[in-house]
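Q: Could you fold this chain for me?
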Amino acid sequence: MAGTEARLIVERSRIISDMNPEIALAQRLVQRRHLVPPIDIENLLREYALVEYVNFPVAIDGLCLDVKAIGKKPQVLVSQRAPLTRKRFTLAHELGHILIPWHLGSIIDEIDVSDGQDGSYFTLEGEANRFASELLLPRPWVIEQILRFTNPLEALFHIIGKAEVSWQAASIKFIDCAPPNQILAVSQDGHVMWSSRSTGTLASIPTRGTVLKGPEHYPFPCEYWSKARLTMAFHCWRFEQIAALPSVDTTKTWRRILDDIVKNIIPDDADQRQFKASINGVTSNANGSIRIGRSTETIATAMLHRLHASAAGNLRFKALLEHPDFDAYCAARARAFTEK
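A: Sure. Below is the predicted structure, expressed as structure tokens.
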């Protein structure tokens, strides 16, 4: 992996730690105890709490009782029926409740909580999940594994096995730590069941339930890997920079080229203006995303990724991409951005 990409993911890790105190707390624990995956999470938790495995009559992952109660040692109850990897994540989650300073009282735990859910309970659960993820999958260690392997899926599977975590937990942390321009997806029977993209990736992720087309899933240059695991298949795309831009008719500016294309697609003047404004918004966003290594090629690549993402649900954008003058427009627009 290029040195620039490695520096970017390390710098992003520092920013994430600064923004999330629960992650910074887990990182300090890892550093102070010199912890390396696989983390002995049960014995670590037993230093802070009484731990018991029980068969709950309802579908919950665990209970954390007497958190920060004066004169009492916290008690953790964990579902006996859960798979080993889920038990390990629940144990780390409960340790998060105990160590995060503002988590108090007794908490019923459900670890399948997304950051988008509202309410103080879901906020606490999300914080405990992020603590658990960072403890079981320390960010510097995950980055080290990503840098070790040429094939990103080999890195992912190594992380799953070595850290003794579920594929879901490992995949989320993997793509969070991966360099820009990577997409990870998991399919079953050829249909997408989960997908995500690394920070800085502009290409759209495969939609849940859709059929994956392997290396042909994206119509622009990329590397592609796939690997089967049990009844699932894992897929990873790493997008490449456009190697060369087409020559452009110097008598036409990018505005003139775009005007001609849009007139071919849309007959109404008002609709034409609205569509051109949408295109300019997408391309400006793509241009603004390129802060390091700016060139006509990197900007054109970003534009292409964002325009294809827009075309996924918009027939007008699809017609733009299929127009015979689109390549000339893309090249002219990218060159104009670099001249500013």
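A (continued): DSSP finds 13 helices and eight strands in the chain.
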